[in-house]
Amino acid sequence: MAKQLGFLVDTEKCIGCFSCEMACKNEYQTEVKPRWRRVYQQREASLPYPERNFMSLACNHCADPACLKVCPVGAYSKREDGIVLQDHARCIGCRLCTMACPYGAPQYNEKDRRVEKCQLCYQKVDRNEEPACVAACPVGALQLIKDLNSFPEPGTVKELPGFPDITITRPSVRFVPPRAGVQIRRDV
Amino acid sequence: MAYQLTRRSFLKGLAAGSALTALTAYGGLKYAAPAAAVEAGYPEAGAGAKVFRNVCPRNCYDTCSMLSYVKDGVLRKVSGDPVNTFTNGRLCVKGYTYTRRVYSPDRLKYPMKQEPRGSGKWQRISWDEALEIIARKILAIKKEYGSTLPICLNKYSGNFDILHYGIEGMMSSIGYTTRALGTPCWPAGIDAQTYDFGTLWNNDPEDLVNSRYIILWGVNPAWTSIHSMRFIYAAREKGAKIVAIDPIVTQTAAKADLYLQIKPSTDGALALGMARHILDNGWVDVEYLKANAVGWEEFFEYLRREVTLEWASKTTGIPAGVIADLAREYATTKPAAIWIGYGLQRHTNGGQNVRAIDALAAITGNVGKSGGGALYGHLETWGFNYAAMTMPKPAGAVGVKKPDGTMSDRFININNFGAELLNTNDPPIKMLWIACRNPLSQDPEPQVVQKAFETMDLVVTVDHFLTRTAAWSDIVLPATTHFEEYGVNASYWHYWVGINEQAIEPYFEAKNDVQIAMLLAAKLNALEPGSCTYPTSGNLEEWVGKEFNPKMLDLLGISDYRELKKGPRKAKLPPAAWADGKFRTPSGKIEIKSSEAPKYGLPALPIYVPEKQPSPEYPYRFFTPHWRYGLHSQFQNIDWMMNVSPEPYVEIHPATAAAKGIKDGDWVKVYNEIGYVTLKARITATTAPEVLVAYEAWYKDLNYNINYTVKAVPSDMGKKATGNRGLAFHDNFVNIEKVR
Fold it and tell me: Could you check whether the bond before residue B111 is cis, i.e. omega within 30 degrees of 0?
């Protein structure tokens, strides 16, 4: 099986500080609107602490990427290590990929009329450095999985409430589910 | 409002994706992307840049060591400096926006003059013209009133770099002036720890990893000191239990092993209830107290006489059994640390509550121990020369006569600034200089501050942006950011000290406070020789060099300040504060019975002082704490931040919302007898039924200011160490109604 890089999102540790999202913008000085990485605040009542749980998501560099399949000009490719790359110069801004991706990873940039997305800091990966978002996490809640094929799965899950059906594109992301401590509250 | 990933938006994307997948599936076909083209689309902003060392100068626990990446004279990106083992090469959501702050189209570029004040009719003027207006006004005031006392400085925490104290120096150099004295942030807790230990001195926060039990008491590091969370987690991984005590379910509370939802402002009752249970069960460290404390016998008499678990339970809203368990665990799991937050002391009994918690740490022998402590803050690494601040008065300067015949500046209370400006006479205040501050946004009762501004002849504000305060000034002067100036910074939490290098040229005509002082000195002396003592030459790096003394150099283990260009240094201090048992109180011991407190009209013992109660008209407490997206009125106005956090809201408990007929997203009015604020409702059980929460911030295009409802109610302590009592920000009571 080919190598597949991925992200581990430890929602037990994640404090929703948004540093990863902003570190990404800082690293590439992106336009205001695109959010290659985005921290989603979860309000689902089924979670232990609604409002205080977060999913930090970027491109999931899927095993079966929908963006790659729909792109009419072949701007997308998958590297040997599983990174889904977009060739920005080829993009014609048709936005089919933004509709195909279940995760909203490719985003249309109104300024240059093209789509852009997380490239998993492939330049850094090639230099054996951490992606900017991973390097920014103050608590180690966001990590790079070097190869999903050999990733020991115990304690992690492939889905969390609110996360789309993973059978569509087989996203390269794993989660540590949130954990609740004991709450002594006055409103119950 | 923070974005949320809803199932619906996912399904929408998913449906489209499925259809398109079916239409265009050419399974697994891959293209080799030309590497150069990919590169062209996604260049790394910091590639090929020269790297400088900086320190984030904001009023924040973490005071991050930073690196700035500069190419062709332009700041390309920022990162954390990995040399600092506390901030660990990481910044926060605010720090990563710095390129957008530096190059914001809203930044002030030139000195500007507004006529009339508040009209919005600004015109660009030269520095020379601005300084001419200011200098002539200073001299005219001196002539008319016989002193410079009608000139008032309000400067505080917008930039904590040591050179920025140069603006205080500038004021000193023209004569005796009026100063807004005190701190709104943390003075009650400072005084509490000063009464108990002699000063505030927290253990190295990196030492939290050695704790086996950590109580995060009224503090929310997940939002306000994110780098501390790593050490808290590390302690947990080694087996420590993490307890959070807070009236609201903060982000930190959600990460704790145990969360206790305490009634606001009753923290002292919980500490005392725990202390009584510890006393009853023989868990007191009597040997430690005998060697290190005074007044503990009287404290124990008070506990036996006045305090019971049941009383503590009734007062705090926490079940007695839970308090008993907490007391047992805290007293018997050693070492145990308590981090006392600034939030819990922003009450009319706040300092007293901190003293009760200090006593709890003392009677269990947790003070002076690695992994222990009653952590609040420290100033041990702030022993600079304050050379930019310390200036002689010009000859013949007239000030306020002191009983001993000498003269001094005149001090007014920073925490009741508007009223103090209006009520100060003989001579009245006629000119304001505002630096590193935004009182029309951040002060309580900004309505009164604005009224006071109307009585001024001249208001000068130095800032990066046209803040609320700048907008009501006659002259605004553009300030440099920390990337455009030299400086040196310490933290009031961690033990690191770093130099701040100038990485880029000043933005347009922006200048640093010391440079402004030097220019004004030259102008004043040209108009009236000898009227100002501030030096008129020296580059900022030289000014940084003047801040160091042998003691500071030794503390940092260096022989010259320039060594800090190789990286920030951690002060050579023991990991545990007070490990030597040499307390700085009059008795040299922990004064559980304080000898100093009664001199300020306060109880000698850490007895319980009842919390402030709401009135029937205004039954809800309105919390207006810090949040993750800003620091006071800084950062929320930056475009990247607006993209993540586009609008303010008030958090309302579901039960309260139901009783008031308020739904998520409704517009509501939060009001009391002094003002109101209209904003969107966010229904969430993270708050308590009687507590509403909205976050202080400055949105540049919104008329949003939570301080319109905040009265200048003083907290109980602060007078001794900081000159004035603090502010009981969290004893603010309001009502709420739906408007649409």
Answer: no
B126 CB burial (10 A radius; 0-12, 13-18, 19+): exposed
Q: Which two tokens stand for residue A105?
A: 């990873």
- For residue B66, the number of C-alpha atoms closer than 13 Å in the C-beta half-sphere is 32
**How many CB atoms are located within 10 Å of the residue B601 CB?**
8
Chain A residues within 8 A of B61 when measuring between CB atoms: none
Residues of B in contact with A181 (CB under 8 A): 242, 254-259
In chain B, residues under CATH classification 2.40.40.20 are 620-738
Note whether B1 and B646 are within 8 A (CB).
yes
Give the C-alpha separation, B267 to B217, whole Å: 8
Q: Which of residues 16-75 of B touch A (CB under 8 A)?
A: 16-18, 20-21, 24-34, 37-46
> Does the pLDDT value for residue B39 go beyond 90?
no
Which positions in chain A touch B259 (Cβ < 8 Å)? 181-185
Give the one of A51, A55, A122 whose C-beta lies nearest to B684's C-beta.
A51
pTM for the structure as a whole = 0.95
Contact B476, B470 (CB under 8 A): yes
pLDDT of residue B8: 40
Strand partners, B216: B244, B339
Q: Is A94 in CB contact (< 8 Å) with chain B?
A: no
- The answer to whether B320 faces chain A, any CB pair under 8 Å, is no
Cβ distance B639 to A96 less than 8 Å, yes or no, reads: no
pLDDT digit string (tens) for B148-182? Answer: 999 999 999 999 999 999 999 999 999 999 999 99
Token pair for residue B256?
A: 């704790």
What is the spatial distance between Cα B154 and Cα B67, in angstroms, rounded to a whole number?
31
Distance of CA B228 to the CA centre of its chain: 16
Locate CATH 3.40.228.10 in chain B.
202-376+581-600
Of the candidates B557, B605, B546, which has an alpha carbon nearest to the alpha carbon of residue B166?
B546
In whole angstroms, give the CA distance from residue B712 to residue B726.
9
Joined tokens for residue A40: 């989603």
Ranking A49-53, B139-143, B455-459 by mean pLDDT, the lowest is A49-53
Torsion sign across C-alpha atoms B461, B466, B470, B473: positive
Q: What is the pLDDT of residues A111-123, one digit of tens each?
A: 999 999 999 999 9
Nearest Cα of chain A lies from the Cα of B227 at a distance, in angstroms, of 6
CATH number for the segment(s) B202-376+581-600: 3.40.228.10
pLDDT at B28 over 60: no
Among the listed residues B367, B318, B295, the one whose alpha carbon sits nearest the alpha carbon of residue B597: B295
> CB contacts < 8 Å between A and B, how many?
247
Fold of B620-738: Barwin-like endoglucanases (2.40.40)
Test B233 with A139 for CB contact under 8 angstroms: yes
CA distance B626 to B590: 32
Could you tell me the CATH number of the domain that includes residue A168? 3.30.70.20
SS3 B12: helix
Helix (H, G, I), strand (E, B) or coil at A54: strand
Which whole-number Å values give the CA distances from B173 to A109, A116, B523, B737, in the listed order?
A: 53, 56, 13, 52
- Which of B31, B315, B656 would you mutate first to test chain A, the one with the most A CBs within 10 A? B31
> In the CATH hierarchy, which top-level class contains the domain B112-182+383-481+509-570?
alpha beta
ipTM field? 0.98
Asked if A4 has any chain B CB less than 8 Å from its own CB, the reply is no
Which tens digit of pLDDT belongs to each residue from A134-182?
999 999 999 999 999 999 889 999 999 889 999 999 999 999 999 989 9
- The shortest CB-CB distance from B226 to any of A76, A96, A138 is to A138
Q: How many domains are there within chain A?
A: 1
A16 Cβ under 8 Å from any chain B Cβ = yes
Rg of the Cα trace of chain A? Answer: 17
